[in-house]
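Before the break, one more example. Copy the sequence into your notebook; we will annotate it together after we see the structure.
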Amino acid sequence: MNCFFYQTKTQYSNTGDALINGALIRTLREYGRVFVNCSLDTPTHFLTDLGINEGEEVQCKNNSEFALKIISYAKKHRNDNVYIVSGLGDIYGGGLKKVSRNLLSSCILPIYNLLGVENIRIGRSFGTLTKSMQISEWLRSLFVKYYFVRDTQSLQRCKEMHINKAKICPDMSWLYDSKAERRENNSNCVMINMKCSTLNIKEQKYMDAIITQCKCFLNELKHHTKSPVQVLVAFQVQEDAEFSQYIYSALKEDYTVSIIERQMSISELRKYYSLCSYHLSNRMHSLLSGYKYGSLPIAIIDTKMHHKIKSTFDDCELQELVIDVYDNNSLKRMDNIIYNKSELYHKVILCETKCAKEVRINLDNILKK
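Here is what the structure looks like once it is written out:
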């Protein structure tokens, strides 16, 4: 029997992180039993969003206790195929804490390997890393059996770090709510779901450029439809709340604007995205969740800095849906999106089918041996 010990360390205030972790957990259940790290610092609401079933929670005080429980299980169940699953999300920079975490894992993973426990590192993307972070990630990778990143740029960074076992597996969000019907919305409502930075550095120039591009799109859509446009400002990450208010204030004098004052939860995604024909965002899992409920994603990003989204959309051949935030000639691209909306929405759905299939093929290759 396959048994998966699932590491939940992530950004708990990010609905997108709950979405991708929950999607992978539900998929792993198709291959075996799942046990989830429910340490004391894991918020209850996050576990609820993950949809953890009875009997799947591993109650522990910290990661060390979780590691001991994995070791204990592996010793007692020699006939099971035991896996540790981790890695979802993106990583960049470095710092003592991140490097130390990798070095600690490099000490623990060999013990797992001796007990026959295999590590699956999946769903990772890489930004620019410090030299010490690169070395620590390479060292950790030596003890990881299956190492997957979610875009070609991250794969290239792995090659530069000499992590040659790395392969591509598309983002887990393509698996989310896979059985629901996909139907394009046709309304006069546009959602704006934005963060105020590329690398967590708040910059007024970037914020103002976002407002400019949003206004440009809204005006172009109004001109095309010859009817008033409604705007819904929302956020899926708690730290974006302040910037959402900033966007609302910048738009309310010229447009009919409403704002969702609280962070959208997973259970509310259908409710709000189904109201919108388009959603403008620089958040990966806003772009890769809203289309599931009929809203066409438009990435307004700094293409020189926001590598994760650009690389993902390039890999999926969805470049038409990417607008550089500093592009002074973006009207032509916006016109193309508006005039070809149905065709582009259908293209996103075809991409979802293809990427979800690729994820399952990768998991089949590992787990159906």
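The radius of gyration is 21 Å. DSSP finds 13 helices and 14 strands in the chain. Try to locate both features in your own notes.
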